[in-house]
Design brief:
By secondary structure, this protein is an alpha/beta fold. The chain has nine helices and seven strands, in the order αβββαβαβαβαβαααα. The chain folds into three domains: 31 residues, no CATH class; 123 residues, Response regulator (Rossmann fold), CATH 3.40.50; 78 residues. Helix content is 46%, strand content 14%. The strands form two sheets. A five-stranded parallel beta sheet has the order 4-3-5-6-7, with helices on both faces. A two-stranded antiparallel sheet has the order 1-2. A hairpin with a 3-residue loop joins β1 and β2. The longest helix has 31 residues.
Length: 290
């Protein structure tokens, strides 16, 4: 990685090096057996003992009562990866429905947002570490150099790294906590509660973003729904059929009884567009996203 931690390549080839460091930290052993044409076997041995099953208890991240600290305030999410952005923003909307969640794609955009936040409306920043244009650590250093409340906003690093040295660098840059990706909702909420005093909604509201099929549905469908509305407004039957065809697999998997007839009647149309049928499908999709 270069000094700015900007992602330039798909992989850095650090997998085994990271495994080796983690194994050594646990005083374990790492054995590699490789044979040309057959493959590689990696054996990790760790000196651990089975722990007793803990007594059932409530999730530790949930406060007895939400303080409401984030209600009506802005939570800034800085994340360039589409799926990570979806999971992070929807986790916040699920557990903090009263907060205003804003998404930016680069560290430079995150810095610009904080520079313009003269009213101190932003209560929390969830910062990806590796982003284009400006990485998360550089953005955090520059936020800490701002004047006023913006310099003191809590910043939580969202990082794919679990190396102690990388986590230390995040803290040295001025970040207040680190949560490793992919994260569990309770891990993120626990960090937020510690920094803001707000433990969010105890069970969350809305859909579960950690169900891959549900997350994919809420990721793909809204954009295609917008395109469907535009095609209807342009009275373009061929474009409507093309969009409905691309939507059908996600819609039918979601609710075959409801969506299969709506999609199929539009796909069978010839010539003139039935705006009533398209609007019926649009209304059904909107209801499924609510």
């Amino acid at each position: 990685m270069d000094a700015t931690d900007q992602r330039k390549h798909s992989g850095a080839g650090l997998g085994l090096a990271i495994v080796k460091e983690l194994v050594q930290l646990h005083t374990g052993t790492l054995q590699i057996n490789s044979e040309v044409g057959k493959g590689t076997e990696v054996i990790v041995a760790l000196p651990v003992q089975a722990a007793e099953r803990p007594a059932a208890s409530a999730p530790s991240h949930i406060l007895q009562e939400s303080s409401g600290t984030l209600a009506g305030r802005t939570v800034l999410v800085a994340e360039d990866n589409e799926m990570n952005a979806l999971v992070t923003t929807e986790t916040m909307r699920r557990y903090y429905p009263g907060a205003v969640v804003e998404l930016v794609r680069t560290g430079r955009e995150a810095l610009r947002h904080m520079e313009q936040d003269v009213d101190g409306d932003t209560a929390l920043v969830l910062m990806d570490v590796q982003m284009p244009e400006m990485d998360g650590m550089t953005a955090t250093r520059r936020i800490r150099a701002l004047d006023g409340d913006a310099a003191r906003v809590p910043v939580i690093a969202l990082t794919a790294s679990v190396l102690p040295s990388d986590l230390s660098r995040c803290l040295d840059a001025g970040m207040d906590a680190c949560v490793s990706k992919p994260f569990k909702a309770e891990e993120l909420i626990r960090a937020i509660a510690r920094l803001t005093g707000d433990g969010g909604a105890p069970t969350g509201v809305g859909y579960d973003v950690h169900d891959p099929r549900v997350a994919l549905y809420h990721w793909l469908v809204p954009t295609r729904l917008k395109a469907l509305r535009a095609a209807l407004a342009a009275n373009d039957p061929s474009e409507v059929k093309l969009i409905v065809h691309s939507l059908r697999p996600q819609l039918v998997e979601r609710d075959a009884e409801r969506f299969a007839p709506l999609c199929d009647q539009l796909l069978r149309m010839n010539g003139e567009l039935s705006s009533q049928q398209v609007n019926e499908l649009i209304a059904a999709i909107e209801a499924s996203l609510a």
